[in-house]
């Protein structure tokens, strides 16, 4: 097990323990953490997230709020790509809601590998597996939310509206504390803060996992999975 895996696994165990109280996990990408193009160079947008353990032992609620992408004077958001672990199926995502935007489960079906240089997102910084979420009638401030039976991890987002695009500045940079979702920031291998967003992970909690009150039980779970996995 290399140092990145060790840090990530420890962070996951600590985060599972902390999640037992059901407190929301919140964070944001501020304007200085977003790279923008075209007319979005003239605004100061923010992307916020609130992720909450639904306390059912299996699912989390993911809510993303977009602020400052004002459709009255500049292009409104037409879609965004949210990174997911490769192979995440559509059936793992349910209970779609929105405030201030046209969004439901029908907008959440395009799961695939998005390739750098594709016409719809010419400034996509790297190939990324994720879901493309199409939106209608968005304004200056809107929120979309959904449930997933997947734990959070640090990842990337790419946003598009008209000819304008935006993405987190450290798009595709490797994260050392990948699963430490209670950390204030994603970190690289040398401890530098990264501009990342929390997204659904590939790890599906087993029934009752999120109810563990200490890290001991989850540590044993990690060890069992590590023992069952082939050596890298």
From TrEMBL:
Keywords: Signal
Pfam family, any one: PEP-CTERM
Entry's transmembrane regions: none
Domain Ice-binding protein C-terminal stretches: 204-225
The keyword Signal belongs to this UniProt entry's keyword annotation: yes
InterPro entries: Ice-binding_C
Leader sequence segment: 1-22
Keyword Metal-binding: no
Protein name in UniProt: PEP-CTERM sorting domain-containing protein
